[in-house]
Design a protein that fits this description.
With 290 residues, the chain is α/β, with parallel strands linked by helices. The chain is built from 8 helices and 14 strands. The strands form 4 sheets. The protein has a 5-stranded mixed beta sheet with strand order 5-4-3-6-9, sandwiched between helices. A 5-stranded mixed beta sheet has the order 12-11-10-13-14, sandwiched between helices. The N terminus is likely disordered.
């Protein structure tokens, strides 16, 4: 049985850890969302959805408070932005307070429970993996993240940081990125870059005021996907995030994702609900880890 697309412990294929409750934590560049998941029933309840603090201590206190507010939690599974190593340390995160921390150790200290920490886009790609063999995933949030699916598995890379598509060069971008590179995709397709140009509530305005800027973001994403096709030979380009709900953005991605027949005929898919993918991915990944 599945609830809203999430695998529950009632499914014969489920490999969930032996815990009375899992706490699922989605730390984004602008918001933090926390959900409790009962292992006995498979039900998931979102208990926190608020603006993310720019102080690590505040984030840790929030997670710890939820853990200790009721019920036994044996596993805290965290998805966060940045360069996240397999040991749960975060080497860099350009728009989050979790940068340069041993986040796994910090979470375990405040929660008195085992923790698992992984890059958010990699987790979301794991949520997409069912039924998909080879794909390039581009996650559009405060920053641009991504992941590569090969044979249904998310590739980590030798250093554990593969898939950082937001820091590939784009002909549609200008200037130097905070990562130190020039003309990164993040400079033109990220949430922070769009808000810098249009304001924080741009989508509430008339389409005529933001259409050209969103078209630019779509052209940049599609072009990077096309550039990577000879290297990765993907079956699908999957683009996720709020922008994926906008027709003008989808059309722009499709128009610039032009791949010669020599390199196959990859499809393009769009997924607007990254929260759902995060929950599903955390459950899948922690299930495989235990």
């Amino acid at each position: 049985m599945c609830d809203d697309g999430l695998v529950t412990n009632e499914s014969p294929d489920c490999q969930l850890p032996d815990a009375s409750q899992m706490l699922l934590v989605n730390i984004g560049g602008s918001r933090i969302r926390i959900a409790r998941r009962s292992i006995s029933t498979g039900l998931l309840e979102v208990v926190v959805d608020e603006r993310a603090s720019d102080r690590l201590a505040d984030l840790l206190a929030l997670v710890g408070g939820v853990v200790h507010s009721g019920g036994d939690v044996d596993l805290v599974a965290v998805a966060c932005p940045g360069l996240v190593s397999s040991d749960g340390t975060v080497a860099a995160a350009l728009h989050s307070a979790v940068a340069h921390t041993d986040l796994k150790a910090e979470i375990e200290a405040v929660c008195d429970a085992e923790a698992f920490v992984a890059n958010d886009a990699s987790v979301q790609a794991a949520g997409l993996a069912a039924g998909r063999s080879d794909a390039l995933f581009v996650a559009l949030g405060t920053s641009v993240g991504g992941a590569v699916l090969r044979c249904g598995t998310v590739l980590d890379g030798g250093l554990g940081h593969s898939g950082e598509i937001g820091h590939l060069g784009s002909v549609y971008a200008e200037g130097r990125c905070r990562c130190g590179l020039e003309r990164c995709l993040d400079l033109v397709a990220s949430g922070w870059s769009i808000e810098d140009d249009l304001g924080s509530d741009w989508w509430r305005s008339a389409e005529s005021t933001w259409r050209a800027r969103i078209e630019l973001a779509g052209l940049a994403v599609g072009a990077v996907g096309a550039d990577l096709q000879p290297l990765l030979s993907n079956e699908i380009l999957i683009v996720g995030g709020h922008l994926a709900s906008l027709e003008v953005f989808r059309q722009s991605v499709q128009s610039s994702f032009s791949v010669p027949a020599t390199w196959g005929e990859p499809k393009v898919e769009f997924v607007s609900d990254l929260d759902q993918l995060t929950w599903k991915g955390l459950i899948a990944v922690t299930g495989r880890k235990n």
